[in-house]
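This entry is retained here.
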Amino acid sequence: MKHICYKLIIGLFMLVSLPLWARVQPAMVVHDASSLEWSLWGYRPNVWRMNFDFASLSGTWAECMDIPVTVPGSVQLALKNAGRIPDWNIGLNYTAAEWIENRHWL
């Protein structure tokens, strides 16, 4: 009986002392979000809390509505592709895109 208890204790100690990456992990589920249609809504800070309806994905106080966006991607690239801002890599065009970081994007 002592022999079995010692094996059990040693086995538990080895399991606890293993690093997390060495333990058996459940299989990860990967979802491809790029196959879905995504749209951006741009609001002044916190205004979306008063107006945006997540159930119907609509709101009337947004400064920018239903801008198509790709995932992965960025707000700036979506606005450039929609023709709302110029290419920020050319000349001083980056100044025309500075307002973007002062908005809340849904």
